[in-house]
Every structure is written in C-alpha cells, then in structure tokens.
Design brief:
Elements (H helix, E strand, L loop, with lengths): L4 H10 L6 E4 L6 E5 L2 E5 L4 H13 L2 E5 L14 E4 L6 E6 L3 H20 L10 H21 L6 E5 L6 H8 L4 E5 L7 H4 L5 H8 L4 E4 L2 H14 L3 E3 L4 E4 L2 E7 L17 H12 L6 E8 L6 H14 L7 E8 L6 H21 L7 E4 L5 H10 L2 E4 L8 H9 L6 E5 L12 E3 L4 H7 L2
Parallel strand pairs: 1-4, 1-7, 4-6, 7-8, 8-9, 9-12, 13-14, 13-16, 14-15, 16-17, 17-18
Antiparallel strand pairs: 2-3, 5-6, 10-11, 11-12
C-alpha cells in the first residue's frame, strides 16, 4: 500500500466512518501574534508540526494545543476555535489557555527542567519540584477536560503528543473509556536505572498506560519503556506481542519512526536551488566559491551545537588550507531562554563564535555566522536548498526531522548530510555521513 493523504481519507471513510481524530500537543501548528501592522500568522518550524499537520489536514480533525500567541485570543470564536490552514481551512484548531504561573511550572518547570534532561543523555541534571508536578498534573487535567468537550462521540481517536502529557492518556481513559488513545513519545526514553530518579515515576507510567498504543521512534526506546514498567509496576508483559497489561487494560508498545510530508507541499512555492543559493549567499555576504555548511534547530543543549563549532575549529587547525573556503551558518531559534541551562548555552555559543571569527576571520571573511532568530518553514527550506552540507550533530535525539527535511528539500539530489549516530534518523538515513559528535577529530574529518 502506498500511503498518501487520499489513502488515509479513504480508510477513515470506508473502515472508520464517523470517526473523529483529535490531536493533542503543547505546540500549536499556527500562531497569531500582534505586530506593528496588526496580526501576524506564524507557522512554527517544528518537527512535530511538520509530521502531524499534513495528517490532521487529511483527517479533517481537531488539533488541541496551548494558545501562546499574543493575538491567539483575538482570532478564535466564542468556543476558542479557529479553522486552519488560513485560506484553505481543513481542520479545527482548539486553543487551551494557561496562566503564566501554569506555563512556567508545567512547561518550563516539570516538562523541560525535569523530564527533558531526564530523557536525554546530555549530562544536564534534572530538576524536580513538587510545585511543578502539581501544575503539570493540573494542566494535563485541563487538556483532558478539553478533549472530552471536543469529542463528538464516545470513541474518538486521540493522538497524544510527547512528554508534556504523560498523565493525559489515563485521564482521557477515565472519562472516555471507549476512546482509542494513541500516545507518541517524541524524545528518547531512558533506561530504567536513569528513569528511577524521577520522584513520580510510577504515576507517569500509569498515566501513559492509559493509552491503547504507545509509540517511540526506535525499538531501543520502546524496550527501555517496557523495562521501566517491568521494574516499577505490577504488570503482565507479553514481549512477543509487545503488549503490557495493567489495571485490566492492555497497551501495545511499538516503534514507529516518524517522518515528514513527501513531497513537501511548500517546495512548490520555493524557487529553484540555484536561486535559493544566490539569495542565501547574498544575504550572508558569501562569495560563490565558499562552501556553505548549515545547522538548523532550536538552541538546545541536546543538539550538539557547540560540538560542531569544535569540529569547525579542529578542521581549521588540522587543515588550515580550508580557512576562507568554508562558512558555517548556524540558525538557532531561541528556546526556553529563561532557564539557566539555556541561557548558559546561548552565552557559550556566542562567545565561541566570536573567538572562532577572531582567530580565523578577516575583514571580509567570518567562518561562523550565528543567527539566533526564529525562521519560517519556507526560510528554513531555502537555507537547506542553499547548503553544501547540513550538520545534525545531536548528542541524543528521538528522531530529528531536520535530517529528513534537508533530504526532502534537495530535489536536485545534491548536498551532503552529516548525521549524529545518536539521532534516531541515523538508523534510516544510511547514506548520510554518520559521526559521533563527541569525537571532534572524526566530525572534522567528515567535513573534508
């Protein structure tokens, strides 16, 4: 079977008539902000959005998300809904409102100072606070109330997304026992020894086991989850069937490597590769003979941004003939900037970029361009199409869709992907140059 939007529509119409598909995530696919000219629409450059938005369009479903845009309240109806995409509405975006205190404790606190470092091998210590946990539980309950309110029948298909909503599947199950709840955990799951440090480890597992199916990017992370359940909960595990029975309910645990829309719809709106190259080079002040290497992601300590800076430094040290012949463009969207670990990373990146430019640069040449700004998906794809090399040097990643987006953007079949062995994508994109980002010499040699 060849999967396409039409295939999905056909299955829903013929095999699952009257089925409602509800997506739940923290991040919304469309953000409305106030600017000097009125209201601006922003489509976030997000892997989660890239993967799920085409599916939601095809299903004509409902997407429930936190409304964090400064004009989000101005653009919804009396039921906090807005039809999207603009210009060609095909599904409903239902926004959930959080107070600043809820957002700080649930999102920045428990989710991103607790669960995020817990699940990533990046050697940043998780911080767990009882007040953050209470807010996390309350916000999950608020989203469960919204799912129930939006459900048109007793058996919707609810697609719960990521570590922000570990408690949500059980809460939905309690209110809609016939619902099909499919949870996808987009980040790695740690081994049971690491997971054991979480003070609410049993509650999180119980919450997730309210799902009908739990998905991970890789079998390795699915196995880690099963081992955690085996260690901390009284349950029956059928390993041959990848099934866990707990509290009278069975949950299937599988690996589902996530991907992106292909062909990417926005490619039709972009100019040819040569024009993209010319635009980006002109914008960055690059001569035609300089090789352009790019990195595109959120500014996050799991992405190995400093490690690729070290690799560039190593390249120039070992092969000084490459000075003035290669430029690295790092697009790092600001992220969680109020958290100390992210503030420190931001400062270190800027400091190292300045050092490299002073050491190897001239009046007319800067080897490292650091752009700490948000970019639209079209701008990101233009950069992909302009690049000679794309570096994805994650220290630990569930999948990393930047790697797949770069390949998808290159309909000219040119460009080289340098990919970390610690990203789930390395198990699928086998023709990439696979590197260990902790091995600076290896990564620098791969650039040659």
């Amino acid at each position: 079977m060849t999967w396409s939007p039409d295939t999905l529509r056909k299955i829903l119409a013929e095999d699952l008539p009257e089925t409602q598909v509800i997506v739940v995530s923290n991040r919304e696919p469309y953000i409305h902000n106030v600017n000097d000219d009125g209201v601006e629409l922003l489509v976030p450059a997000s892997g989660l959005v890239s993967a799920l938005e085409p599916i939601t369009r095809a299903c004509a479903g409902t997407w429930i998300a936190y409304g964090g845009g400064t004009a989000d309240r101005l653009t919804v109806d009396e039921n906090d809904r807005v039809e999207v995409p603009p210009g060609n509405p095909s599904y409903t975006l239902r926004r959930v409102w959080l107070t600043e205190e809820e957002y700080q404790a649930y999102y920045l606190g428990f989710a991103n100072e607790g669960l995020w470092p817990l699940c990533h091998i990046a050697f940043t210590r998780p911080i767990f606070r009882a007040s953050d946990w209470e807010a996390y539980e309350a916000v999950n309950r608020k989203f469960a109330d919204t799912v129930v309110a939006e459900a048109r029948n007793e058996r919707p298909i609810v697609l719960v997304q990521d570590y922000h909503f570990a408690l949500l599947p059980r809460m939905i199950r309690e209110r809609l026992p016939e619902a099909i709840v499919i949870t996808f955990w987009h980040i790695p799951w740690p081994n049971s020894e690491v997971y054991s440090i979480c003070p609410w480890r049993e509650r999180i597992l119980e919450g997730l086991l309210g799902s009908s199916i739990i998905g991970f990017h890789t079998q390795f992370h699915a196995n880690n989850f099963t081992e955690s359940v085996d260690r901390f909960l009284e349950s029956r595990i059928e390993r041959a069937d990848a099934a866990i029975s707990y509290g009278g309910q069975t949950t299937l645990v599988h690996a589902y490597p996530i991907s992106i829309e292909w062909p990417a719809e926005l490619l039709a709106r972009l100019p040819a590769v040569e024009e993209c190259r010319a635009r980006v080079r002109e914008r960055c002040g690059l001569p035609a003979n300089v090789k352009l290497c790019v990195g595109v992601e959120r500014l996050d300590y799991t992405k190995g941004i400093l490690d690729r800076f070290h690799a560039l430094d190593e390249l120039f040290t070992r092969h000084p003939e490459w000075v003035a012949k290669v430029v690295f463009l790092q697009v790092a969207a600001p992220s969680r900037g109020t958290l100390p670990a992210y503030q420190q990373l931001h400062d270190e990146c800027l400091r190292y970029a300045e050092e490299l430019n002073q050491r190897y640069g001239t009046e007319d040449y800067s080897p490292l361009l650091m752009v700490a700004e948000h970019h639209s998906q079209e701008q990101v794809y233009e950069i992909y199409r302009a690049a000679d090399i794309c570096m994805v040097t994650s220290l630990h990643d569930g999948m990393n869709l930047v790697a797949k987006e770069f390949v998808a953007a290159r309909d000219d079949e040119q460009g080289v992907l340098l990919l970390s062995t610690f990203a789930g994508a390395s198990r699928e994109l086998l023709e990439a140059l696979i590197v260990n980002p902790y091995d600076t010499a290896m990564t620098s040699e791969a650039l040659l």
